[in-house]
Amino acid sequence: MVPPPQDPEMQPGSAENDPAHAPLSDAEFPGWGTEKPGDIEGQVDLIDGERVAGWAYDAASPGRRLLIQVSSGSMVEVTVANIERQDLIDAGKGDGRHGFEVRFNTTSNLSDVVHIKVVATGLDLAGSPAQVDMIGLITHASQEKVLECLKSEALIAFLALKGIKKQ
User: What is the pLDDT of residue 145?
Assistant: First the structure.
């Protein structure tokens, strides 16, 4: 399985830089709500403390983009599965523009279980519900602070073993 695309230059929430947050139009997404559960394919490829990513495809209408709902605790996000993925093109899934990614804007309202559903059918995608890696919620800056504290505590413990008091 090819992991979902990542672009460090993209800023979540910006329609200009993030196709998952682009404005919705009836012209681009005709027929929403007419999907049949047996025609929907897809799965959750990644879930961690920062984001959920995967793909959803309507085999009966390969050009249709599906709405995806991600919910955990009191957090509910809806996005469009419209990110192009080479693995989907290679697998013959329409034009390959059926990937999605939702970044968590806040961690305060998350539970440790996330549900990822196709809005039109209300059904979970394969891999949902899923456990959130709560360790992944620690930001890089927090990790640096934790490491600094651990180094300091380790040094104090080492010096204490040697009978030296740190000043």
Answer: 62
Q: Specify if 64 maps to a domain.
A: yes
Count of other CB atoms within 10 angstroms of residue 105: 11
User: Which of helix, strand or coil describes residue 13?
Assistant: coil
How far, in Å, CA of 28 to CA of 63, rounded?
A: 9
Closest by Cα among 122, 155, 125 to 53: 125
Regarding whether 152 and 104 lie in a shared domain, the answer is no
Q: What is the mean pLDDT of residues 96-100?
A: 97
Residue-wise pLDDT tens digits, 21-63: 444 444 444 444 555 667 899 999 998 767 899 999 999 999 9
Under a CB-based contact definition with an 8 Å cutoff, are residues 89 and 43 in contact? no
Q: Does residue 133 come out as left (phi exceeding 0), alpha (psi in the -120 to 50 range) or beta?
A: beta
User: How far is 5 from 88, CA to CA, in rounded Å?
Assistant: 12
Mean pLDDT of the chain, nearest integer: 74
pTM: 0.61
Number of domains observed in the structure of the chain: 2
Segments forming the whole domain that contains residue 63: 19-132
User: Residue 161, Cβ neighbours under 10 Å: how many?
Assistant: 8
